[in-house]
Each structure stands twice: as structure tokens, then as C-alpha cells.
Amino acid sequence: MGLPRLGGQGGNGGDVWVVASKNMNLKKFKEKYPKKRFVGENGANSSVKALKGLKGADKEISAPVGITVTTDDGKILGDLNSDGQRLIVVKGGRGGAYYSEFQPSKGQARHIRLDLKLIADLGLVGFPNAGKSSLLTAMSNARPQVANYAFTTLRPEIGKLMYKDYKQISVADLPGLIEGAHVNKGMGHRFLKHVERTKQLLFVVDVSGFQLAAKTPLRSAFEAVQLLTKELELYKEELVSKPALLVVNKMDLPDAEDKLAELKEQLQNPHEYSNLLPDDMIPKSYMSFKHVVPVSASTGFGVDHLKSCIRESIDEEAMETKENIHQERLQALRSQSHGHL
Predict the structure, then answer these.
(1) What pTM did the predictor assign?
(2) Which of the residues 34, 95, 213, 265 has an alpha carbon 20 to 30 A from that of 312?
(3) Res 151: pLDDT
């Protein structure tokens, strides 16, 4: 409230913020905020001692890094991708003043959703049973659940690749895709939303191909690659422009070398082999892989070479990003200099 007889102004109500914290995870979040209701404090009334009332205290919600804040109807309010980043989600009401007959106004109120998307250097992309979890175990310190049936991975696992110079690269093993994931079949969007935040993609296919169930068709390794590409493309087209590597797993199986040679030939000339795919499975653009690496996650064959390829690819991208930033700064300086002239 304001103070009519002296023309005072009441303090504004407190705002509500979501603040990213590297020390917060989903488990801690649920424990800390069981009621899920957040209110900024009321502003103070004006008084003879303080004609301008104090603003109410803001309410801060600590959330994990990687959160997207949306409204109930899906409108994105903002992304919080680094520690300490802040986003105001509702504003407190204005304190009473002369123009409002000294009556305060109500603060905003809204329902929000916090959607966590993992941030990792690499995201493993593959159909169920391609051996992604076994590969992550072989490469890193992660210990994901591994079994010989589809959808073992029900929640993302993050592994760290460690190098002799202490460089660390994070790899996310994400729930397995199936055909139709872009329309939310299977793990659907629970998988695809995490792919958006990874810097690069690591496609993993079984050299012998893939069959989800007895009634579904057997897909070759080439078909699996194109189906994965199509699912990413249908969900969000820019995903297929990310740098990508291809891992051909299970090289310990019989005839693996012949099948690998066939796959490489098909990948070099994908248009010639597009007749192997139904029309609705052909991607608009074929993935270009920086490396095609044969491995056996179960025996360890090729795993060290794969780690070297991953390091090379990540380092190359970091150098390109630095160079682009440098060029943009130079361009900005030239523009400023031109303006002064």
C-alpha cells in the first residue's frame, strides 16, 4: 500500500527467478522443493519513516544446468545452459502510488515446466541393441545397465572419456530410438530432446543390421544409418548438420569384414543405394561422417582408435569455433573503424 496523505509509494512485490546451479540435480531438486509452489514476498507499505516502501524479497529456484523453462502450453521462456545463469519467470506486483490511488497491484502468476536436456560433448545415437551401453562402458568410467534386449537404457547415462593429458570428453548414452520416434513413439521425444544439446553425434550401428522385433523388417547397417538420420531430421532438421562419427559395432561376428566393406561402399554412394529404402525413409540429406570406425565393444577391438578419433573431432571443432569467434571480432572492429571514418 502507498500512503495517500503524504504521497508515499508502496514497495513492489518480489519476483520469481529460476537460477541454474551446477550443484543441483533432479534428485536434489525434488527433495528441496516438494510443494513445487514458489511465491515472491510482499513489498512493504510506505510509512512516515519511509515514504518509499521496501521491495519484497525475490524468490530464487535453484535448477540443474541444462534446463529449458516453458509455460504449460509449451512456449519457451528461456534456456539455462551455464552455472549462475538466471531467468525471471514472474514479476511481483507494483506498489501502490498516486496513479493507482495508492492501491497495489497483484503480481503475475503462471504454471511453468522445467525440461532438462543433457549437455554433453557427444551423444550416442543408435537403435536398441546396437551396443551403445556396452560401448560406453568400454570407453569410459560409466557403468550403464547392459542386457541383450531392447530399451535397457531408460534414462540417459553420462560417461567421461579420459585422456593422458587430462582432457575429458563427456559422452551421453541416450535411450534407444525406434522408427517413428519423431512422433513420440517408444522413447520418442525423451531421447531426441537430449540430442539437441550435444556438440557432436556418435552414430552406433550393428554391422549385421537391426531388427526390433520378429514381426518388424530386418534393416541392414546402411538402412539403420539412414533411418536414424531420418528420425533426427523429422524431429528437428538442423540436428543432421551436427558433426558426426559412425561406429560400426560387433565386428567380432562372422562375416563382419565383408559387411563393413559393403557398408562403406554404400555410404560413399548413398544415392545409388536409396532404392533399398522405402520412400518415406529416405532422408533429405545424407549424413557425412568425419570417421567410420569399426569396433567390438565386447572384445575391446578398435576402442582406443575410436577414442583418438573422437578427440581429434572435438579438438577440430573447438579450433573452428575459436577461429569463427576471432573472425567475427575482427569484422566487428572493422565495421566500427569504418563507422568512425
Answers:
(1) 0.68
(2) 265
(3) 37
